[in-house]
Write a structure and sequence with these properties.
This protein is an alpha/beta fold. The chain is 44% helix and 15% strand. It contains 13 helices and twelve strands. This is dTDP-glucose 4,6-dehydratase.
Length: 355
């Protein structure tokens, strides 16, 4: 049995689905079901005895302690996090509560549980913390990519809260001996991605005939990682990663945001052409850049390849095609996640004059 926190969100749900597709070890799934957590992501597991879902918060120490005591997991994989930079700018406190205080309480509950295990179970146990490349800050165009030794220089409330959580995980290993692993990933994309992030937002808006909002000049560079590749990396780190170590997970796909949007438009032109025969790229609109927008992220994932033999299976071309095809094939999922609150958020975030 493993305990997955945040397992109804984008990456967490993909991980749970992939885990149970790869084998029969049961998953206990704890998720708070905030706006980005969606039980519908896990609909294919309804009635599957290998999957137990619990609606709850990692910050609820009594609940977490009870789940650990009753289910006796051999590992905890922590995906639970507030993760949207724009939302963190408008409301940073929720990010501190979940990503910092929540991680602290989870660590303490896990430490108490781990301390009560026998020696063999203690040695086999792992706490795997899933984090982001944004903790490292921003890179200049010619800077080498982030390695695991890069100094933390977070620039948004979101990345600062994740950096704090990474430091807590490290400290609980060095102070208390808790057997931890940390992964720092680049930008994920793929199925079940909540449509406030760049790629799903562009797909959803394009199909709805709405503007495709691009911050600033659109030349912000990110490394793009197909979510199922990320899941395979986490499985590999859980299986064979060295206790106390950090592993960067990247897709070796550095691309400017504007190029990403043009690629999405090109695929939609091919797979779901506009009725008027024009390209979806005509819907691109430039909007005022967000505060403190990091210019470039890039992940050096050679340590993960060198030590554990992991490499991404997808190129960006294969991954983005699969992603667009998934959204075209799942319009009901898209419609259900687009609540009134979500529509209000997008309108507020991208309102304003063109840049």
């Amino acid at each position: 049995m493993i305990l997955v926190t945040g397992g109804a969100g984008f990456i967490g749900a993909n991980f749970v689905l992939d885990w149970l597709a790869q084998g029969d070890e049961p998953v206990l799934n704890l998720d708070k079901l905030t706006y980005a957590g969606n039980r519908e992501n896990l609909a294919s597991l309804d009635g599957d005895a290998r999957h137990t879902f619990v609606h709850g918060d990692i910050g609820d120490s009594a609940l977490v302690a009870d789940l650990l005591a009753r289910h006796q997991p051999r590992a905890v994989i922590n995906f639970a996090a507030e993760s949207h930079v724009d939302r963190s700018i408008h409301g940073p406190e929720a990010f501190i509560q979940t990503n910092v205080v929540g991680t602290l309480r989870l660590l303490e509950a896990v430490r108490a549980y781990w301390g009560g295990l026998n020696a063999d179970a203690q040695a086999a146990f792992r706490f795997l913390h899933v984090s982001t490349d944004e903790v490292y800050g921003s890179l200049a165009p010619t800077d080498p990519a982030f390695t695991e030794d890069h100094v933390f220089e977070p620039n948004s409330p979101y990345s600062a809260s994740k950096a704090a959580s990474d430091h807590l995980v490290r400290a609980w290993h060095h102070t208390y001996g808790l057997p931890v692993l940390t992964t720092n990933c680049s930008n994920n994309y793929g199925p079940y991605h909540f449509p406030e992030k760049l790629i799903p937002l562009m797909i959803v808006n394009a199909l709805a005939g709405k503007p495709l909002p691009i911050y600033g000049d659109g030349q912000q560079v990110r490394d793009w990682l197909y979510v199922k590749d990320h899941c395979s990396a986490i499985r590999r780190v859980l299986e064979a990663g060295r206790v106390g170590e950090t592993y960067n997970v990247g897709g070796w796909n550095e691309k400017p945001n504007l190029d990403i949007v043009h690629t999405v438009c090109g695929l939609l032109d091919e797979l779901r052409p506009r009725a008027d025969g024009q390209s979806y790229s005509g819907q691109i609109t430039y909007v005022k850049d967000r505060p403190g927008h990091d210019r470039r992220y890039a992940i050096d994932a050679r340590k993960l390849e060198r030590e554990l033999g992991w490499k991404p299976a997808e190129t960006f071309d294969t991954g983005i095609r699969k992603t667009v095809q998934w959204y075209l094939a799942n319009p009901e999922w898209v419609a259900h996640v687009q609540s009134g609150a979500y529509r209000d958020w997008v309108q507020t975030q991208y309102a304003g004059a063109s840049a």
